[in-house]
Amino acid sequence: MGTNADPLAILGSLPGVSDAVDSVRQSVDKVYGHRVMRRRSEEVTSEAALRGARGSAALAGADWPLEEMRRRSDFSADPEARTVGAALRLTAEAGQMLSVWRQSPVQALARLHLVAAGGAAPDDTVGRPRLAGEPVDEPLVELPLPESGEVAARLDGLVGLLRAGSEAPALVVGAVVHGELLSLRPFGSFNGPVARAAERIVLVGSGLDPKSICPAEVGHAELGRADYLKALEGYASGTPEGMAAWIGHCGKALELGVRESVAVCEALQRGAA
Question: Where is the Fido domain positioned along the sequence (predicted)?
Answer without folding.
Answer: 104-249
